[in-house]
Amino acid sequence: MELQIKDTFSKELPSDPIAENTRRQVSEATHSYVNPRIPSQPNLIHASKEMVKAIGLDEAAIKSKDFLDVFSGLKIYPKTKPYAMAYAGHQFGNWAGQLGDGRAINLFEVEENNKRWAIQLKGSGETPYSRQGDGLAVLRSSIREYLCSEAMHHLGVPTTRALSLMLSGDDVLRDMLYNGNADYEKGAIVARVAPTFIRFGNFELFAARNDIKNLKKLTNYTLKYFYPELGKPSKETYIELFETVTQRTLDMIIHWQRVGFVHGVMNTDNMSILGLTIDYGPYGWLEDFDFGWTPNTTDKQNKRYRFGNQPNIGLWNLLQLANALYPLIEEAEPIEAILNQYQVDFEKQSLQMMRSKLGLQVELEEDAKLLANFEDCMLLSETDMTIAFRLLANYKKDHPENGIEIIENAFYKPEELTKDKLMQWKVWFKAYDQRLQKETITDSERQKNMNAVNPKYVLRNYMAQLAIDKADEGDYGLVDELFQVLKKPYDEQLEQEKWFAKRPEWARHKVGCSMLSCSS
Protein backbone atom coordinates (compact mmCIF):
# COMPACT_ATOMS: atom_id res chain seq x y z
CA MET A 1 0.00 0.00 0.00
CA GLU A 2 1.71 3.14 -1.22
CA LEU A 3 0.50 6.66 -0.44
CA GLN A 4 1.80 10.05 -1.58
CA ILE A 5 2.57 11.48 1.86
CA LYS A 6 2.89 15.28 1.91
CA ASP A 7 2.77 16.30 5.55
CA THR A 8 2.58 20.07 6.05
CA PHE A 9 0.63 20.83 9.26
CA SER A 10 2.99 18.97 11.58
CA LYS A 11 6.13 20.02 9.70
CA GLU A 12 5.44 23.71 9.14
CA LEU A 13 3.74 24.57 12.42
CA PRO A 14 5.11 24.50 15.98
CA SER A 15 4.85 21.21 17.86
CA ASP A 16 4.58 20.50 21.55
CA PRO A 17 8.12 19.74 22.84
CA ILE A 18 6.82 17.37 25.56
CA ALA A 19 6.72 13.82 24.23
CA GLU A 20 4.79 12.00 26.94
CA ASN A 21 1.08 11.40 26.49
CA THR A 22 -0.30 13.04 29.64
CA ARG A 23 -3.29 15.38 30.00
CA ARG A 24 -1.99 18.92 30.24
CA GLN A 25 -2.19 22.49 29.03
CA VAL A 26 -0.12 22.78 25.87
CA SER A 27 1.24 26.22 25.03
CA GLU A 28 2.83 27.73 21.93
CA ALA A 29 2.07 24.66 19.81
CA THR A 30 -0.52 23.66 17.22
CA HIS A 31 -0.18 19.94 17.98
CA SER A 32 1.31 17.22 20.17
CA TYR A 33 2.83 14.02 18.80
CA VAL A 34 1.01 10.94 20.02
CA ASN A 35 0.63 7.40 18.71
CA PRO A 36 -2.74 5.68 18.38
CA ARG A 37 -3.57 3.05 20.98
CA ILE A 38 -2.96 -0.43 19.55
CA PRO A 39 -6.32 -2.20 19.08
CA SER A 40 -6.42 -5.80 20.32
CA GLN A 41 -8.26 -7.29 17.33
CA PRO A 42 -9.07 -4.81 14.56
CA ASN A 43 -11.71 -5.85 12.06
CA LEU A 44 -12.78 -3.88 8.98
CA ILE A 45 -16.56 -3.42 8.83
CA HIS A 46 -16.81 -1.11 5.81
CA ALA A 47 -14.75 1.17 3.58
CA SER A 48 -15.74 3.94 1.18
CA LYS A 49 -14.40 2.91 -2.23
CA GLU A 50 -14.80 6.50 -3.39
CA MET A 51 -12.53 7.84 -0.65
CA VAL A 52 -10.09 4.93 -0.94
CA LYS A 53 -9.63 5.97 -4.58
CA ALA A 54 -9.47 9.69 -3.65
CA ILE A 55 -6.43 9.13 -1.41
CA GLY A 56 -4.63 7.20 -4.15
CA LEU A 57 -5.36 3.54 -3.43
CA ASP A 58 -7.07 0.93 -5.56
CA GLU A 59 -10.00 -1.20 -4.44
CA ALA A 60 -7.79 -4.22 -3.81
CA ALA A 61 -5.96 -2.29 -1.08
CA ILE A 62 -9.09 -2.43 1.11
CA LYS A 63 -8.58 -6.15 1.70
CA SER A 64 -4.86 -5.81 2.43
CA LYS A 65 -3.28 -6.22 5.85
CA ASP A 66 -1.58 -2.83 5.43
CA PHE A 67 -4.97 -1.10 5.10
CA LEU A 68 -6.26 -2.83 8.24
CA ASP A 69 -3.09 -2.10 10.20
CA VAL A 70 -2.69 1.58 9.26
CA PHE A 71 -6.34 2.68 9.47
CA SER A 72 -6.96 0.89 12.76
CA GLY A 73 -3.87 2.43 14.35
CA LEU A 74 -2.14 -0.95 14.73
CA LYS A 75 0.88 0.24 12.76
CA ILE A 76 2.24 3.65 11.85
CA TYR A 77 2.77 4.33 8.17
CA PRO A 78 6.52 4.62 7.37
CA LYS A 79 8.13 8.05 7.81
CA THR A 80 5.06 9.60 9.41
CA LYS A 81 4.45 10.93 12.91
CA PRO A 82 0.85 10.93 14.21
CA TYR A 83 -0.35 13.90 16.26
CA ALA A 84 -3.33 15.45 18.03
CA MET A 85 -4.28 19.08 17.30
CA ALA A 86 -4.54 21.79 19.95
CA TYR A 87 -7.54 24.11 19.90
CA ALA A 88 -9.94 25.87 22.23
CA GLY A 89 -13.58 26.84 21.86
CA HIS A 90 -16.91 28.11 23.09
CA GLN A 91 -19.20 25.27 24.14
CA PHE A 92 -22.93 26.05 24.44
CA GLY A 93 -21.99 29.74 24.37
CA ASN A 94 -19.43 29.56 27.20
CA TRP A 95 -15.66 29.82 26.88
CA ALA A 96 -14.23 26.35 27.56
CA GLY A 97 -10.51 27.12 27.21
CA GLN A 98 -8.16 24.49 25.76
CA LEU A 99 -9.97 21.52 24.21
CA GLY A 100 -8.04 19.85 21.37
CA ASP A 101 -8.30 16.42 19.73
CA GLY A 102 -9.48 14.39 22.71
CA ARG A 103 -10.27 11.24 20.74
CA ALA A 104 -8.87 11.93 17.28
CA ILE A 105 -5.32 11.29 16.14
CA ASN A 106 -4.10 12.64 12.81
CA LEU A 107 -2.07 10.08 10.90
CA PHE A 108 -0.72 12.02 7.92
CA GLU A 109 -1.58 14.12 4.86
CA VAL A 110 -1.81 12.69 1.37
CA GLU A 111 -1.64 14.56 -1.93
CA GLU A 112 -3.45 12.92 -4.84
CA ASN A 113 -4.65 14.48 -8.12
CA ASN A 114 -3.64 17.93 -6.82
CA LYS A 115 -5.92 17.46 -3.81
CA ARG A 116 -4.76 17.41 -0.22
CA TRP A 117 -6.31 15.01 2.28
CA ALA A 118 -5.61 14.89 6.00
CA ILE A 119 -6.51 11.52 7.52
CA GLN A 120 -7.30 11.05 11.20
CA LEU A 121 -8.54 8.20 13.35
CA LYS A 122 -11.45 8.90 15.69
CA GLY A 123 -11.60 6.61 18.70
CA SER A 124 -7.95 5.61 18.69
CA GLY A 125 -7.01 6.43 22.26
CA GLU A 126 -6.15 9.18 24.65
CA THR A 127 -4.14 12.31 23.85
CA PRO A 128 -2.90 15.24 25.94
CA TYR A 129 -6.29 16.83 25.14
CA SER A 130 -8.54 13.98 26.33
CA ARG A 131 -9.35 15.73 29.64
CA GLN A 132 -11.50 13.20 31.58
CA GLY A 133 -12.16 11.03 28.51
CA ASP A 134 -10.53 7.79 27.40
CA GLY A 135 -10.09 8.86 23.76
CA LEU A 136 -12.08 5.87 22.52
CA ALA A 137 -15.29 5.61 20.51
CA VAL A 138 -18.08 3.06 20.50
CA LEU A 139 -19.61 1.23 17.55
CA ARG A 140 -22.95 3.09 17.61
CA SER A 141 -21.44 6.60 17.35
CA SER A 142 -18.89 5.38 14.80
CA ILE A 143 -21.56 3.91 12.52
CA ARG A 144 -23.50 7.18 12.77
CA GLU A 145 -20.44 9.26 11.87
CA TYR A 146 -19.30 6.95 9.06
CA LEU A 147 -22.71 6.78 7.36
CA CYS A 148 -23.59 10.42 7.88
CA SER A 149 -20.44 12.06 6.55
CA GLU A 150 -20.74 10.11 3.29
CA ALA A 151 -24.53 10.63 3.10
CA MET A 152 -24.10 14.39 3.54
CA HIS A 153 -21.59 14.55 0.70
CA HIS A 154 -24.05 12.89 -1.68
CA LEU A 155 -26.78 15.29 -0.55
CA GLY A 156 -24.51 18.09 -1.79
CA VAL A 157 -23.72 19.38 1.71
CA PRO A 158 -20.10 20.50 2.33
CA THR A 159 -18.66 17.93 4.73
CA THR A 160 -15.69 16.03 6.05
CA ARG A 161 -15.61 12.49 4.66
CA ALA A 162 -15.11 8.97 5.99
CA LEU A 163 -12.66 6.39 4.69
CA SER A 164 -13.25 3.31 6.83
CA LEU A 165 -15.08 1.89 9.81
CA MET A 166 -13.42 -0.73 12.02
CA LEU A 167 -14.02 -2.61 15.21
CA SER A 168 -11.11 -2.31 17.64
CA GLY A 169 -11.79 -5.62 19.38
CA ASP A 170 -11.87 -3.80 22.73
CA ASP A 171 -14.84 -2.99 24.94
CA VAL A 172 -15.47 0.61 25.96
CA LEU A 173 -17.33 1.79 29.05
CA ARG A 174 -20.03 4.40 28.33
CA ASP A 175 -22.87 6.02 30.24
CA MET A 176 -25.08 6.46 27.19
CA LEU A 177 -27.78 8.58 28.82
CA TYR A 178 -25.61 10.27 31.49
CA ASN A 179 -27.86 8.70 34.15
CA GLY A 180 -25.29 6.70 36.08
CA ASN A 181 -25.92 3.42 34.24
CA ALA A 182 -22.59 2.88 32.50
CA ASP A 183 -22.13 -0.27 30.44
CA TYR A 184 -19.54 -1.83 28.15
CA GLU A 185 -19.99 -1.43 24.38
CA LYS A 186 -18.00 -2.51 21.36
CA GLY A 187 -15.12 -0.14 20.56
CA ALA A 188 -14.70 1.19 17.02
CA ILE A 189 -12.49 3.47 14.93
CA VAL A 190 -13.47 5.71 12.03
CA ALA A 191 -10.84 6.99 9.61
CA ARG A 192 -11.98 10.53 8.79
CA VAL A 193 -10.80 12.51 5.80
CA ALA A 194 -10.80 16.25 4.98
CA PRO A 195 -8.45 18.72 3.27
CA THR A 196 -7.78 19.95 6.82
CA PHE A 197 -9.37 19.57 10.24
CA ILE A 198 -8.50 23.14 11.32
CA ARG A 199 -11.38 24.68 13.26
CA PHE A 200 -12.38 28.14 14.52
CA GLY A 201 -11.10 26.93 17.88
CA ASN A 202 -7.50 26.55 16.61
CA PHE A 203 -7.39 30.34 16.14
CA GLU A 204 -9.28 31.03 19.37
CA LEU A 205 -6.65 29.16 21.40
CA PHE A 206 -3.76 31.43 20.35
CA ALA A 207 -5.84 34.62 20.49
CA ALA A 208 -7.05 33.84 24.04
CA ARG A 209 -3.44 33.37 25.14
CA ASN A 210 -2.32 36.50 23.29
CA ASP A 211 0.12 34.30 21.34
CA ILE A 212 0.02 36.51 18.25
CA LYS A 213 3.17 34.99 16.76
CA ASN A 214 1.60 31.54 16.47
CA LEU A 215 -1.82 32.94 15.57
CA LYS A 216 -0.13 34.53 12.57
CA LYS A 217 1.73 31.32 11.68
CA LEU A 218 -1.51 29.31 11.73
CA THR A 219 -3.40 31.91 9.69
CA ASN A 220 -0.62 32.17 7.11
CA TYR A 221 -0.50 28.37 6.86
CA THR A 222 -4.28 28.27 6.28
CA LEU A 223 -3.95 30.87 3.53
CA LYS A 224 -1.03 29.10 1.87
CA TYR A 225 -2.67 25.68 1.56
CA PHE A 226 -6.41 26.26 1.59
CA TYR A 227 -7.00 29.81 0.34
CA PRO A 228 -4.02 30.46 -1.97
CA GLU A 229 -6.25 32.42 -4.36
CA LEU A 230 -6.48 35.22 -1.75
CA GLY A 231 -2.78 36.06 -2.17
CA LYS A 232 0.11 36.66 0.20
CA PRO A 233 -0.51 37.38 3.89
CA SER A 234 -1.44 40.97 4.70
CA LYS A 235 -4.11 42.79 6.68
CA GLU A 236 -6.31 42.92 3.55
CA THR A 237 -5.82 39.19 2.92
CA TYR A 238 -6.81 38.36 6.51
CA ILE A 239 -10.02 40.36 6.00
CA GLU A 240 -10.66 38.49 2.74
CA LEU A 241 -10.01 35.19 4.51
CA PHE A 242 -12.62 36.03 7.13
CA GLU A 243 -15.09 37.05 4.42
CA THR A 244 -14.55 33.80 2.47
CA VAL A 245 -14.91 31.63 5.60
CA THR A 246 -18.10 33.56 6.43
CA GLN A 247 -19.53 32.85 2.96
CA ARG A 248 -18.60 29.16 3.14
CA THR A 249 -20.13 28.80 6.61
CA LEU A 250 -23.33 30.45 5.40
CA ASP A 251 -23.45 28.17 2.35
CA MET A 252 -23.07 25.09 4.58
CA ILE A 253 -25.87 26.17 6.93
CA ILE A 254 -28.23 26.99 4.03
CA HIS A 255 -27.66 23.39 2.87
CA TRP A 256 -28.41 22.10 6.38
CA GLN A 257 -31.71 24.00 6.41
CA ARG A 258 -32.53 22.78 2.89
CA VAL A 259 -32.32 19.09 3.81
CA GLY A 260 -33.60 19.50 7.39
CA PHE A 261 -30.32 18.55 9.07
CA VAL A 262 -29.67 19.57 12.68
CA HIS A 263 -26.03 19.39 13.78
CA GLY A 264 -26.76 19.31 17.50
CA VAL A 265 -23.40 20.65 18.78
CA MET A 266 -22.46 23.87 16.95
CA ASN A 267 -19.66 24.75 19.39
CA THR A 268 -16.86 26.86 17.88
CA ASP A 269 -14.49 23.88 18.12
CA ASN A 270 -16.91 22.03 15.80
CA MET A 271 -16.75 24.70 13.08
CA SER A 272 -14.41 23.99 10.17
CA ILE A 273 -12.29 26.80 8.73
CA LEU A 274 -13.27 25.40 5.30
CA GLY A 275 -17.02 25.58 5.94
CA LEU A 276 -17.40 21.79 6.14
CA THR A 277 -19.78 19.88 8.39
CA ILE A 278 -17.49 18.43 11.03
CA ASP A 279 -17.93 16.23 14.14
CA TYR A 280 -21.05 14.14 13.76
CA GLY A 281 -22.28 13.63 17.31
CA PRO A 282 -25.94 13.97 18.33
CA TYR A 283 -27.18 15.06 14.90
CA GLY A 284 -30.57 14.36 13.36
CA TRP A 285 -32.89 15.07 10.46
CA LEU A 286 -36.16 16.87 11.07
CA GLU A 287 -38.94 14.38 10.86
CA ASP A 288 -41.80 16.33 12.36
CA PHE A 289 -41.17 19.84 10.94
CA ASP A 290 -40.25 21.88 14.01
CA PHE A 291 -38.01 24.96 14.24
CA GLY A 292 -37.46 24.23 17.94
CA TRP A 293 -36.17 20.68 17.59
CA THR A 294 -32.70 19.67 18.75
CA PRO A 295 -31.38 16.08 18.76
CA ASN A 296 -29.03 16.80 21.68
CA THR A 297 -30.11 15.75 25.21
CA THR A 298 -27.50 18.15 26.68
CA ASP A 299 -29.26 21.01 24.85
CA LYS A 300 -32.80 19.91 25.72
CA GLN A 301 -33.47 22.76 28.15
CA ASN A 302 -32.09 25.80 26.32
CA LYS A 303 -32.30 24.47 22.75
CA ARG A 304 -29.43 26.70 21.72
CA TYR A 305 -28.65 24.47 18.73
CA ARG A 306 -32.25 23.92 17.58
CA PHE A 307 -33.02 23.72 13.86
CA GLY A 308 -34.38 27.27 13.54
CA ASN A 309 -31.43 28.79 15.40
CA GLN A 310 -28.58 27.28 13.33
CA PRO A 311 -28.17 30.37 11.10
CA ASN A 312 -27.93 32.63 14.19
CA ILE A 313 -25.41 30.32 15.84
CA GLY A 314 -23.35 30.33 12.62
CA LEU A 315 -23.19 34.13 12.94
CA TRP A 316 -22.35 33.98 16.67
CA ASN A 317 -19.54 31.52 15.97
CA LEU A 318 -18.19 33.71 13.15
CA LEU A 319 -18.10 36.61 15.61
CA GLN A 320 -15.86 34.50 17.88
CA LEU A 321 -13.59 33.75 14.90
CA ALA A 322 -13.54 37.47 14.10
CA ASN A 323 -12.46 38.21 17.67
CA ALA A 324 -9.68 35.63 17.31
CA LEU A 325 -8.43 37.12 14.01
CA TYR A 326 -8.78 40.72 15.21
CA PRO A 327 -5.17 41.03 16.46
CA LEU A 328 -4.02 40.47 12.85
CA ILE A 329 -6.54 42.95 11.40
CA GLU A 330 -6.83 45.59 14.18
CA GLU A 331 -9.80 47.22 12.51
CA ALA A 332 -13.39 46.54 13.50
CA GLU A 333 -15.25 48.17 10.60
CA PRO A 334 -14.50 45.64 7.81
CA ILE A 335 -15.26 42.73 10.16
CA GLU A 336 -18.59 44.27 11.21
CA ALA A 337 -19.49 44.85 7.56
CA ILE A 338 -18.85 41.16 6.76
CA LEU A 339 -20.95 39.99 9.73
CA ASN A 340 -23.80 42.35 8.78
CA GLN A 341 -23.62 41.07 5.20
CA TYR A 342 -24.02 37.51 6.51
CA GLN A 343 -27.46 38.44 7.84
CA VAL A 344 -28.49 40.09 4.56
CA ASP A 345 -27.14 37.17 2.51
CA PHE A 346 -28.82 34.59 4.71
CA GLU A 347 -32.26 36.15 4.19
CA LYS A 348 -31.69 36.37 0.45
CA GLN A 349 -30.14 32.92 -0.05
CA SER A 350 -32.59 31.23 2.30
CA LEU A 351 -35.52 32.62 0.32
CA GLN A 352 -33.89 31.47 -2.92
CA MET A 353 -33.28 28.00 -1.47
CA MET A 354 -36.91 27.72 -0.31
CA ARG A 355 -38.11 28.84 -3.74
CA SER A 356 -36.15 25.97 -5.28
CA LYS A 357 -37.75 23.54 -2.80
CA LEU A 358 -41.19 24.67 -3.98
CA GLY A 359 -40.17 24.57 -7.64
CA LEU A 360 -40.33 28.34 -8.20
CA GLN A 361 -37.93 29.89 -10.70
CA VAL A 362 -39.42 33.34 -11.21
CA GLU A 363 -38.61 35.62 -8.27
CA LEU A 364 -41.69 37.43 -6.94
CA GLU A 365 -42.12 39.56 -3.84
CA GLU A 366 -45.09 37.51 -2.62
CA ASP A 367 -42.95 34.33 -2.44
CA ALA A 368 -41.75 34.92 1.13
CA LYS A 369 -45.38 34.92 2.33
CA LEU A 370 -46.22 31.78 0.34
CA LEU A 371 -43.21 29.97 1.84
CA ALA A 372 -44.00 31.12 5.39
CA ASN A 373 -47.60 29.97 4.96
CA PHE A 374 -46.41 26.53 3.81
CA GLU A 375 -44.27 26.23 6.93
CA ASP A 376 -47.27 27.33 9.05
CA CYS A 377 -49.34 24.56 7.45
CA MET A 378 -46.67 21.96 8.23
CA LEU A 379 -46.75 23.13 11.87
CA LEU A 380 -50.52 22.53 12.16
CA SER A 381 -50.00 18.81 12.73
CA GLU A 382 -46.96 16.53 12.89
CA THR A 383 -45.70 16.67 9.28
CA ASP A 384 -42.62 14.90 7.94
CA MET A 385 -40.48 17.55 6.28
CA THR A 386 -38.55 15.29 3.89
CA ILE A 387 -41.66 13.45 2.70
CA ALA A 388 -43.82 16.59 2.40
CA PHE A 389 -41.38 18.39 0.10
CA ARG A 390 -40.65 15.29 -1.94
CA LEU A 391 -44.33 14.50 -2.52
CA LEU A 392 -45.14 18.12 -3.33
CA ALA A 393 -43.16 17.70 -6.56
CA ASN A 394 -46.00 15.44 -7.79
CA TYR A 395 -48.47 18.34 -7.74
CA LYS A 396 -50.11 19.14 -11.10
CA LYS A 397 -51.18 22.68 -11.97
CA ASP A 398 -54.92 23.54 -12.03
CA HIS A 399 -55.81 20.89 -9.43
CA PRO A 400 -55.52 22.52 -5.99
CA GLU A 401 -58.30 20.24 -4.74
CA ASN A 402 -55.83 17.30 -5.02
CA GLY A 403 -53.11 18.99 -2.98
CA ILE A 404 -53.75 17.47 0.45
CA GLU A 405 -54.18 14.01 -1.04
CA ILE A 406 -50.76 14.31 -2.75
CA ILE A 407 -48.92 14.98 0.51
CA GLU A 408 -51.12 13.02 2.94
CA ASN A 409 -48.42 10.38 3.53
CA ALA A 410 -46.32 13.09 5.20
CA PHE A 411 -48.79 13.43 8.10
CA TYR A 412 -47.98 11.43 11.24
CA LYS A 413 -51.48 11.82 12.67
CA PRO A 414 -53.90 12.65 9.84
CA GLU A 415 -56.79 12.30 12.26
CA GLU A 416 -55.55 15.48 14.00
CA LEU A 417 -56.23 17.54 10.87
CA THR A 418 -59.46 19.20 11.93
CA LYS A 419 -61.80 21.00 9.55
CA ASP A 420 -60.07 24.34 10.24
CA LYS A 421 -56.60 22.88 9.68
CA LEU A 422 -57.66 21.23 6.41
CA MET A 423 -59.14 24.55 5.28
CA GLN A 424 -55.79 26.26 5.94
CA TRP A 425 -54.08 23.65 3.75
CA LYS A 426 -56.70 24.09 1.01
CA VAL A 427 -56.22 27.86 1.03
CA TRP A 428 -52.47 27.34 0.71
CA PHE A 429 -52.79 24.94 -2.25
CA LYS A 430 -55.01 27.47 -4.03
CA ALA A 431 -52.37 30.17 -3.50
CA TYR A 432 -49.62 27.75 -4.64
CA ASP A 433 -51.56 26.91 -7.78
CA GLN A 434 -52.06 30.58 -8.61
CA ARG A 435 -48.35 31.17 -8.05
CA LEU A 436 -47.40 28.27 -10.35
CA GLN A 437 -49.45 29.88 -13.14
CA LYS A 438 -46.76 32.59 -13.24
CA GLU A 439 -44.04 30.01 -14.02
CA THR A 440 -43.14 29.11 -17.60
CA ILE A 441 -41.93 25.54 -17.03
CA THR A 442 -44.05 22.42 -17.34
CA ASP A 443 -45.18 20.24 -14.42
CA SER A 444 -42.65 17.55 -15.31
CA GLU A 445 -39.77 20.09 -15.52
CA ARG A 446 -40.76 21.51 -12.14
CA GLN A 447 -40.94 18.01 -10.69
CA LYS A 448 -37.43 17.25 -11.95
CA ASN A 449 -36.09 20.52 -10.47
CA MET A 450 -37.78 19.90 -7.12
CA ASN A 451 -36.54 16.32 -6.91
CA ALA A 452 -32.98 17.59 -7.45
CA VAL A 453 -33.08 19.67 -4.22
CA ASN A 454 -35.58 17.73 -2.07
CA PRO A 455 -34.01 14.39 -1.13
CA LYS A 456 -36.10 11.24 -1.01
CA TYR A 457 -33.73 9.41 1.34
CA VAL A 458 -32.00 10.86 4.40
CA LEU A 459 -30.28 9.11 7.32
CA ARG A 460 -33.09 9.20 9.84
CA ASN A 461 -31.99 8.33 13.36
CA TYR A 462 -34.17 5.20 13.47
CA MET A 463 -32.49 3.93 10.29
CA ALA A 464 -29.04 4.40 11.80
CA GLN A 465 -30.25 2.70 14.98
CA LEU A 466 -31.50 -0.35 13.05
CA ALA A 467 -28.05 -0.66 11.45
CA ILE A 468 -26.41 -0.26 14.88
CA ASP A 469 -28.61 -2.97 16.43
CA LYS A 470 -27.75 -5.39 13.61
CA ALA A 471 -24.04 -4.52 13.80
CA ASP A 472 -24.09 -5.24 17.55
CA GLU A 473 -25.11 -8.77 16.58
CA GLY A 474 -22.23 -8.97 14.07
CA ASP A 475 -24.40 -8.36 10.99
CA TYR A 476 -23.09 -5.42 8.93
CA GLY A 477 -25.42 -5.92 5.95
CA LEU A 478 -27.64 -2.99 6.93
CA VAL A 479 -24.65 -0.66 7.27
CA ASP A 480 -23.82 -1.41 3.64
CA GLU A 481 -27.45 -1.23 2.49
CA LEU A 482 -27.91 2.25 3.97
CA PHE A 483 -24.50 3.34 2.69
CA GLN A 484 -25.57 2.41 -0.88
CA VAL A 485 -29.07 3.95 -0.63
CA LEU A 486 -27.69 7.22 0.72
CA LYS A 487 -25.23 7.53 -2.17
CA LYS A 488 -28.22 8.41 -4.42
CA PRO A 489 -30.54 10.36 -2.12
CA TYR A 490 -32.35 12.19 -4.94
CA ASP A 491 -33.00 9.10 -7.09
CA GLU A 492 -36.30 7.23 -6.91
CA GLN A 493 -34.62 3.84 -6.12
CA LEU A 494 -38.00 2.10 -6.10
CA GLU A 495 -36.45 -1.09 -4.74
CA GLN A 496 -35.54 0.91 -1.58
CA GLU A 497 -38.98 2.47 -1.10
CA LYS A 498 -39.18 1.10 2.45
CA TRP A 499 -36.70 3.80 3.52
CA PHE A 500 -38.95 6.53 2.13
CA ALA A 501 -41.19 6.36 5.14
CA LYS A 502 -42.10 8.30 8.24
CA ARG A 503 -40.36 7.48 11.51
CA PRO A 504 -42.15 4.40 12.91
CA GLU A 505 -44.11 4.86 16.14
CA TRP A 506 -41.78 2.50 18.05
CA ALA A 507 -38.91 4.90 17.34
CA ARG A 508 -40.65 8.01 18.71
CA HIS A 509 -39.00 7.82 22.16
CA LYS A 510 -36.54 4.96 21.69
CA VAL A 511 -32.97 5.74 22.73
CA GLY A 512 -30.87 6.64 19.68
CA CYS A 513 -33.93 7.35 17.52
CA SER A 514 -34.93 10.79 18.75
CA MET A 515 -32.55 12.43 21.23
CA LEU A 516 -28.88 11.55 21.67
CA SER A 517 -26.16 12.56 24.08
CA CYS A 518 -22.81 14.08 23.17
CA SER A 519 -21.14 10.75 23.94
CA SER A 520 -23.37 8.99 21.41
Q: Could you describe the 3D structure shown?
A:
With 520 residues, the protein is an alpha+beta fold. It folds into 2 domains: 1-330, no CATH class; 356-452, no CATH class. 39% of the residues lie in helices and 13% in strands. The protein contains 16 helices and 12 strands. Strands 2, 6, 7, 8, 9 and 10 form a 6-stranded antiparallel beta sheet that branches. Strand 9 (161-174) and strand 10 (183-194) form a beta hairpin. Helix 10 packs antiparallel against helix 13 (419-436). It is globular and about 70 Å long. The two termini are 33 Å apart. The model has no long low-confidence stretch (mean pLDDT 96). Belongs to the SELO family. InterPro entries: SelO (IPR003846). Mg(2+) binds at residues 270, 279. Its EC number is 2.7.7.-, 2.7.7.108. ATP binds at residues 100, 102-103, 122, 134-135, 192, 199, 279.
Provide a brief overview of the structure:
The protein is an alpha+beta fold. The protein is 39% helix and 13% strand.
> Low-confidence runs (pLDDT<50, min 5 residues)?
none
Overall form? globular
Q: Bin the helical content.
A: 25-40%
- Can you tell me the number of structural domains? 2
Rg is 24 Å
Distance between the termini: 33 Å
Individual helix count: 16
The main pleated sheet reads as:
6 strands, antiparallel
The count of DSSP E runs of length 2 or more, i.e. the number of strands, is: 12
Q: What number is the mean pLDDT?
A: 96
Category by helix and strand content: alpha+beta
Q: Which percent band covers the strand fraction?
A: 5-15%
Order of helices and strands: HEEHHEEEEEEHEEHHHEEHHHHHHHHH
